[in-house]
Please model this.
Amino acid sequence: MGRSGEDVPEGTNSPSHNEKTGELAIPEEDRQRANLYGLLARVLAEPMGDETLEVVRALEGQSDENELGAAFATLGTVAVRTPRGVAEEEFSALFYGDGSGGEILPYASYYLTGFLLEKPLAKLRGDMAVLGIKNSGISKEPEDHIAYLCEIMHGLITGAFNEPASLETQQKFFETHMAPWVGRFFSELEGAESASLYMPVGTIGRLFMAIEAKAFEMAA
Model:
């Protein structure tokens, strides 16, 4: 899953050519978007280990001049006082529960149909094949898991799958596979009974997805 940073997104652009290196350079605002998708993928894919907790703790003191910045600062502050074991217990309560499912089921199929492994997953796999995105097999989760989808968006922006995807391709993927349900998912995570460390993660995700939806709408 994603191992990027935590910058706040500000907009979208197409990649430009770096004359010094001969490679495509990702515009700063797109790098920030990719970093945020990477961060969400990282904290939602598995319980936060020591390395991830250090990344998140570094957010303490983040500028709180806007609502998203304040959510980052809150996440950092909560992470500082959350030991790894407690973070793991919270993740398990939220997403695993007693083995039959936790408080929240982070899958597109569930949010869109009420069941797991349904048509939204089949549609996603078809679109992944068209985009040349293959399942690495590392994760046991189905591809419509929220962390997996955030990782795909990260890769589309950065060119991890071949080259940076066009804004149109990013928008189509987002609007097809994320927009119909991720707002509800992050809102529920934000208000989940078991969420302490993950409450601000829910806030960050909710706000960021709204920013993405608005930016794509304006770019259309």
Observations:
- The chain has one domain: 18-219.
- The radius of gyration is 17 Å.
- The domain at 18-219 is CATH 1.10.3480.10 (TorD-like).
